[in-house]
Please model this.
Amino acid sequence: MGAMFLRIAALWAAVPLVVLLGLVVLGDLGWRPGLGAAAVVLAGSVGLAQLWARDLRHAMAMLHWAGSTQPGDPPPRLFFAATAQLAREAERLSRSLAVRTAQVEGLLRAEQVIVQRLPDPLIVLGPDRRVQRANAAAQAAFGDEMAAVLRHPGLRAAIDRAQSQGENQAAELSLPVPVAREVFATVMALDPPLADGGRIVAVLSDRTRERAVERMRADFVANASHELRTPLSSLIGFIDTLRGPAADDLPAQTRFLGIMAEQAQRMNRLIDDLLSLSRIELTEHQLPAARVNLPNLIHRLAAGFEPQVATRRIRLDVRVPPSLPRVLGDDGQLEQVLQNLVDNAVKYGREGGVVTVSAGRVMPGGRWPGRRGVTLSVSDDGQGIARAHIPRLTERFYRADKGRSRTVGGTGLGLAIVKHIVNRHRGQLLIESQEGAGTTVTVWLPEGEAAETDAAASA
Model:
């Protein structure tokens, strides 16, 4: 500021001093009057320079005051009209710029909020195809697997087409990670790019539920028509017999009605299991969020099996530590898993034998995934299952012993239901059996804390 003051004073004094010097040299003005006049000029120039410098300082203060978000007292009025006009114009421009900047920032914040709250996963990629940002739905759906999703050949091809053609592209994707899903991808190439440099926007709509509904309808019709044909044929045959030859045969009527009741119950169980399996498949891609107390669930379920156990003179041995950690899961579905496993063990186990239900905490390593979890095991001491049948036991309607399965009331869907529920809980299912020595079915489930981490990453 001092250098600026000196330059302004010199500018103000330069012309009058040159005129005075000329008059003195020409003799029109004496040396003493000339020196006096020069002193007056210098004094006036210094005063004007001070006023000009003060106006410049005040003009700068006015600009700062106009652009400040928390202004204090307004600056004083300026002396020079030109400086005041310049300051007012600069102040107007500054205020206009501040308003426009606030509007732009508001629009950017609104855009970020809208993107974050979109129900479908949205991923923004930069020119190098690296993820610039991903909304909450994308983080919940893919988490750490987002890079693997972006490497999907179908999605990469859609991105290539969008960049080369400059038009929106669509693709149907089957994603195997973190769980099998059907996704409809819409890819948009942006020109000009977004404020953060994003050039590509990919919207990934989860169509798993819709595809599951379509498959469910087709499977339900096919399976129901196949499995219901035999009991329906039996019922029709017995009804015709009761109407005709056995119309007056009371003992035959009693026996036939008993068989018809069994067939009707079999049909009812079959339809219940088909509907249950269909409902489970609809939500298989959604990780449960509730915490389940396994010891309470196991003891409650064991109490419900007392009549069946007593009928076959089987001892139900429950081995569950009270301090078992909780797991993230669906209480009703986990109860259905144990229900099916214990029901199979009681039906196919040795009469007068032992069915063991055990649970325990397992640490990372060994046969289970590399994180903490809980295992639930159901064992029987029955005749066991041949090794050739074990890989297919979780298929729908697969029966290792068809005759015995129908005799004890099996539908062939119990282990298929167990498999889909375990898949939904991001667990693992292991079936071990030895002929003549019994069968053990073990379910591994991640602990609550580990499961919550997985849900936040994939979820």
